[in-house]
Amino acid sequence: MKNLPKFLLLSLISLPLTHCVTTVKGQDLTQAIRGRTFTQTGDYVIGANDKLSIQILGGSDVNGEFTVSQQGTISLPLIGAEKAAGTTEKLLMKRLTERYATFIKNPVVSVGVVGYESYKVFITGDVRRPGVFVFQDKTTLLQGIATAGGLGDFAKGQIVLHRMGKKGIVEKYATTYESLLNGEKQMDGFVLERGDVVHIF
């Protein structure tokens, strides 16, 4: 797990050793702030490094796949740079239609995410396959743990979520694996956000 974000390294350094843990401190998971991976209606929000397929009827030179830069833009023929990060497929399609109308008569634009490279989640601690996971679709905390192989042999079932909040401050939220399995407070449907760090004790 090279090139981990600084906030992740600091979070992991601050964690106590697993075999010493009795209780885990943190706000209740139900209080977790909403991230920026999905809109309130569930649409995916494009991020840096995501790969987009853009097709424009009547403009074959424009068709292809484009990677969102670290600055959040894509570089397209005729119009140059266009902001993509922070928007959705539908909104980007609308903006490109407006811009290409200057060069193409009645352009028909389609935009689709074909590589969700920015939807990365870090799962650490007592799981069978800890690591960095890139998800291709909306993923719940329970599904994320399953992707990491499930709980390890010595896991106590305590979970801490580290999520970047306002002004770059990392907030900590706690729950238990049992609560997820039982669906308490609808936590079985809790969705992971890009950049989340999940630590299992």
SS-derived structural category = alpha+beta
CATH architectural label of the largest domain: Roll
Query: Rg to the nearest angstrom?
Result: 20 Å
What is the strand arrangement across the widest sheet? 1-10-9-11-7-8
Number of helices: 4
Q: Please, what is the CATH homologous superfamily of the largest domain? A: Outer membrane lipoprotein wza domain like
Largest sheet: 6 strands, mixed
Q: Could you characterize the architecture of this molecule?
A:
The chain has helices at 6-13, 89-100, 141-147, 177-182; strands spanning 27-28, 51-57, 64-67, 73-76, 80-83, 108-115, 120-125, 131-134, 158-164, 170-176, 197-200. Strand 7 and strand 8 form a beta hairpin. The chain has two domains: 6-37 and 119-200, Outer membrane lipoprotein wza fold like (Roll), CATH 3.10.560; 51-115, wza like domain (wza like fold, 2-Layer Sandwich), CATH 3.30.1950.10. The longest helix has 12 residues, at 89-100. It is α+β, with helices and mostly antiparallel strands.
